[in-house]
Design brief:
Structural class of chain A: mainly alpha
Oligomer: heterodimer
Distance between the termini of chain A: 68 Å
Largest interface: A-B, 73 and 88 residues
Number of helices of chain B: 10
Largest sheet of chain A: 2 strands, antiparallel
Radius of gyration of chain B: 29 Å
Largest sheet of chain B: none
Helix content of chain A: 40-55%
Shape of chain A: flat
Number of strands of chain A: 2
Distance between the termini of chain B: 64 Å
Number of strands of chain B: 0
Strand content of chain A: 5-15%
Chain lengths: 138, 388
């Protein structure tokens, strides 16, 4: 299966050969004869740059205190932004059948449901050991 | 969709012969019998992979649930324990995984375009990134051993584990001079029903001499406790009795990072297999011995990194060091011999790798797995390392 020219087949569906649209950075190649999007290097590198920047941000934002309860949500928020970028661009979800992305979202929803209900439940009966006056707690 | 249509190019014909299923599904050797067209096969494979990734997310979700429940209920334990974790190494690991995700996504692109050489090299760089990640992880685990934070029950924060007392062993090794007084018998609990009294006990009365009391988890020298960098100090935890919950944080830490490490190894193996398939005969002849050699080298380095001479007696890790280094050296030796044999018997390269614009599914799917491993670490890193 070395790379050779994909010659058009009159009976097949139309697809774009690599030299059809030279100005198009993201062009299609054939899996068989269907449109399959090829990610362009610029998009890959741009997403990589943003991910590195967000990683640095994650570390440096720990210096700022948003309040004991909110800090973890800031961290999770930045992690979610990174995960969205990885999912959309590196995992190719942006150019794919949306159902694949829906599978990902559904699993994340169930994880959130799982964690949320368990934390709520444990809050009902777990004693809070923190006594007043300990290390800056009110 | 006529099988009688003449295909002028002679290239891949995708219309299956519906009247005779065994006439061959077009000319694509990768098209399986139960699929009509290659793109149907490809999208089915993608769908199946995404469902599998969903199950992996749910599996880690269970561990994240344990983390969330425990952190919600014992936030001070988490704040204290977090100072044992090295943020810089964790951040470097994050960048390593993100970079390897980039190279893997680029490798998928190369497969789609039929660029064989860049496909192979990018996948090889991805595997190397996985090794770097595991190496940094081993260094971090080594730091844990030095603080007597082992996987399992021999953790210095366990109040009364049965078995070897690690601190006692270290004291014997360093020939501690003074013998410790025996632990005083336990006083009845304040909330015990046998000793109910309306008068609360006087906290100042009968206070034992602090120097004579052995703390619940460590000897008097306790050399392994970090000087506190954070807000929560060990003494704060001891006031509320929370200090014995610190080992649960490390149980969660080791389980999550360990399971993630297993997934890194699985991902690397998948990519290595795909790399082998993507290689022609000449490169393939080199690849298997190189895999073995790299594995052996890694095991030997791992054994050296995690070895800790002060491990308690009976701990498997001490012997595991010897076993790992021995296995590593054996593997390196075998693979070097095999490589020499292959060089002497090298056949001419005659074929390209398996992947190209018409078939790149294994590259795509193993790339998805690797991206999932990266995703999980993206969440693990702030939750474990950046608690403040």
């Amino acid at each position: 299966m070395a790379s050779h020219a994909i010659t058009p087949d009159p009976g097949a569906r139309h697809y774009a050969a690599p030299d059809d649209k030279p100005e198009d950075l993201s062009y299609s190649t054939g899996t068989g004869s269907a449109h399959v999007h090829v990610t362009s290097p610029m998009i890959l590198l741009a997403v990589y740059g943003v991910l590195v920047a967000l990683t640095i941000l994650t570390v440096t934002v720990t210096k700022i205190d948003f309040g004991a309860d909110f800090n973890v949500w800031v961290a999770i928020g930045i992690a979610f932004a990174k995960a969205t970028l990885v999912g959309l661009y590196f995992m190719h979800l942006r150019w794919e059948n949306p159902f694949n992305g829906i599978i990902l979202l559904i699993s994340l929803f169930f994880v959130a449901l799982f964690i949320g209900v368990c934390v709520m439940d444990s809050h009902e009966y777990q004693k809070n050991y923190l006594k007043p006056g300990v290390a800056g707690r009110p | 969709m006529s099988n009688a249509a003449i295909n002028p190019s002679g290239a891949t014909a995708l219309a299956p012969d519906l009247h005779n299923p065994h006439a061959g599904n077009g000319h694509d050797p990768h098209l399986a019998h139960h699929f009509d067209t290659p793109e149907q096969q490809y999208s089915s494979a993608k769908l199946g992979m995404w469902v599998f990734l969903g199950t992996e997310i749910l599996m880690f979700g269970g561990l994240f649930c344990a983390y969330s429940v425990y952190r919600h209920n014992h936030p001070e334990v988490f704040e204290f324990s977090e100072q044992y974790l090295d943020r810089l190494l964790g951040a470097i690991n994050t960048l390593v995984l993100i970079t390897s995700s980039l190279t893997m996504a680029w490798a998928v692109r190369s497969a789609q375009l039929g660029h064989q050489k860049s496909l192979r090299w990018l996948m090889a760089v991805t595997i190397i990134g996985g090794y770097v990640f595991l190496g940094i992880k081993s260094v971090e685990y080594r730091q844990k051993w030095e603080h007597v934070l082992f996987i399992g029950p021999h953790d210095q924060f366990i109040a009364d584990y049965k078995g070897v007392n690690v601190i006692e062993l270290e004291e014997k090794e360093h020939a501690a001079a003074t013998a410790l007084p025996p632990i005083p018998p336990a006083k009845p609990m304040a909330n015990s029903l046998d000793n109910v009294s309306l008068i609360p006990p006087d906290p100042n009365a009968d206070t034992p001499d602090a120097a004579k009391i052995r703390p619940s988890f460590a000897g008097p020298t306790a050399p392994v406790i970090l000087p506190t960098k954070g807000e929560v100090e060990l003494s704060d935890l001891q006031k509320t009795g929370e200090d014995k919950h610190v080992y649960t944080f490390f149980a969660i830490y080791f389980f999550m990072t360990g399971l993630h490490g297993v997934h890194v190894v699985i991902g690397m193996s998948l990519i290595a297999w795909v790399l082998f398939r993507a290689s022609g005969r000449r490169a393939g002849a080199w690849l298997l011995p190189m895999y073995l050699a790299s594995l052996g080298l890694f095991l030997a380095v791992l054994g050296i990194i995690i070895y800790n001479p002060h491990l308690p007696r009976g701990q498997p890790t001490g012997i595991a060091w010897l076993v790992l280094v021995a296995i590593g050296c054996a593997i390196v030796a075998i693979s070097v011999l095999w490589a020499m044999w292959r060089v002497s018997r090298r056949r001419l390269a005659s074929e390209e790798g398996e992947f190209g614009p018409t078939y790149f599914t294994p590259v795509d799917l193993s790339g998805l797995y690797w991206h999932l491993v990266d995703l999980i670490w993206i969440f693990l890193f702030p939750m474990l390392y950046l608690i403040h």
